[in-house]
Amino acid sequence: MLIGLFMVFGARTFGQEWEYTIPYQPSDSEMTRQYCAYEMSDGRIIVSASFLYNIGSYSYLYPFYPPHNALVALSPEGEELAQNNYVKPGYWGSSYNPYVFENENGELFMLTTYSPDHNAYFNYFLNYDNPPTDAILGLYKLDEDLEIVESHEHSFPVDTTLGQYAYSPCESSGSIHLHSAILDDGCMVGAYTKNVSYDRDSIHGHDSLFFFRMSFDGELLANVGYELPYSGYAWQMIFWREQLVPTDYGYIYYSSYSNVPPTLKSEKETSDYAKGAVCYFDKNFNPLRHRYFKHAGNPSVNWPYDEVSIMRSKHNTTYLATRSKTEWTQEDDDCYLYELDDDINGTQDFVPVVNNLRRGLADFDFVAECRAVDVGNSFSLYFCYSLDVGLSLAEDSWVVIEQLDNDFNTLAEVYYGTNDDQIWYCAESITLTRDGGVLMTSQTKKLTDQNQQGSVVVKFPAEVFDGIDEAHANSLKVAIAYPNPGMDVLNIRTGLQNAHVEIYDLSGKLVYNQQITDNITSINTTSWPSGTYIWKIIANGKEAETGKWVKE
Question: Angle 70-446-61 (CA atoms, 0-180°, nearest 5)?
Fold first, then answer.
């Protein structure tokens, strides 16, 4: 499906409406990674991105230095219109990728944070003589070429002690990190953490959680802070991007249980099996109450990793998408989607779970890191996640977009990528467009040559969810087989109804036939000879999907 993916820079047509790729290699001196795509009122697509410099030597996990803010502008047809990097000397982009807004006049704005660059390994601005000590919450008005035409910056002193035990440069040094921003009543409303440096040998105070309101003129209309119980945990908030939803009385803020400010906790905490907290605020960010969240049906499931997405439904509930594992000792990360009845007048200590589902294949499954759920019409929502993402040639990888009804029943399920591509896929975000289409961003890596990587934005038309032919016309699968190659078990996964699977050997002999009654059909292949088999999914009397499966 993605033959030649890394040979082309820019938009190119597959079956999809369009696909825009920025290719890169770990040896490149710089890199741009795309995360969230926003559709503007004029039809342009603005992609929130990060721009990074190489550390100068290859590192398997962190080959690049801390990010700077970046944006890409695409036409409605996916052609690049502009690309800009917002490098600020002496700082790094501590939001990791900026938020994008437009005002009622259709003017474009970037909202983001910068924090002082105090990196132990290398300072790429060589500013030791005059290092900054303030972090910045900034709003920047942009022209059509993504150039800054107005700047509104608010500075806050931060702890500039060099942080220790960093997972990557700057992550354990004092900073501010913007992790939620929404549009409400004509203003931007958001939340950021102010973190002290992380040092196990000394205490630098506590981190703080701030809620703010800002006008499009850059005026900070409110900025209310609460002290947190921990110190120096900025790295926990890397991908927490959507945690705040508006209500008629104020806002609901979702957080991990440990991130609740002490001032918001009750005298007797309901902590047993609590995996997260739900905090209620009025329009002035005064706390009204707080409650707790736990995984439905299995309280031993650990609280989410970094990837958490929050989306308000059209019937005053909240969708929460997250990645979790059952036990810390197990390498089994699965994708969860919840609908929560977070009515402020609810009487229970725990927010009730209205609906929930769990998705996963093997070891490394996780929801789209920045935005995993979006709401379509009143009868559907869309859930995006990566399945079995691995780094070896033996592991398959797909991005799944699942269309659900209000009761979490699957209406359609499509798969982007197959093991035949030998490409690792990592979903970043999903956004619905006004014409019913889907914008999806992802990172890719060619498993047979990991020097070939890319950052991709894809536009799928609305009809990919209408049927098998429509999905195939847009280079999407409606069923997958894994693990491939495999040994004693062949799994078939599909969202199709009224379907069955047929397995043939290479001579054309039918060796297996079974009705599909569940999302995943597991077939015991212990007695099968080693070799190559052809699998087919037949739905409503028509061949819906086919592929090869190898038994080792």
Answer: 60
pLDDT for 280 beyond 80: yes
419-478 tens-digit pLDDT:
566 788 889 999 999 998 999 999 988 877 778 889 999 999 999 999 999 999 988 999
Residue 5 domain-assigned (yes or no): no
> What are 319's two structure tokens?
């969708």
Rounded to two decimals, the pTM is 0.90
Can you list the positions of beta strands (E) in 143-186?
148-157, 175-184
* Cα–Cα distance, 528 to 106 (Å, whole number): 62
From CA 534, how far away is CA 421, in angstroms rounded?
17
What CATH number does the domain containing 501 carry? 2.60.40.1220
The answer to whether residue 180 sits within a structural domain is: no
Q: In the chain, how many domains are there? A: 1
Model confidence pLDDT, tens digit, residues 75-115: 999 999 999 999 998 888 988 899 999 999 999 999 999 99
Closest among 248, 233, 155 to 199, alpha carbons compared: 233
DSSP secondary structure string, 74-140? E-TTS-EEEEEEE--TTEE-TTSS-EEEE-TT--EEEEEEEEE---SS--TT--TTS---EEEEEEE
For residues 523 and 414, what is the distance between their CA atoms, to the nearest angstrom?
22
Question: Could you report the per-residue pLDDT of 191-219, keeping only the tens digit for each?
Answer: 998 988 877 677 778 889 999 999 999 99
- Owning domain of residue 526: 485-552
HSE, side-chain direction, 13 A CA sphere, residue 530 = 3
Any domain includes 268: no
**Residue 361: inside a domain, yes or no?**
no
Classified as helix, coil or strand, 175 is strand
Cβ partners under 8 Å of residue 503, min gap 6: 490, 510, 511, 512, 513, 523, 533, 534, 535, 536, 549
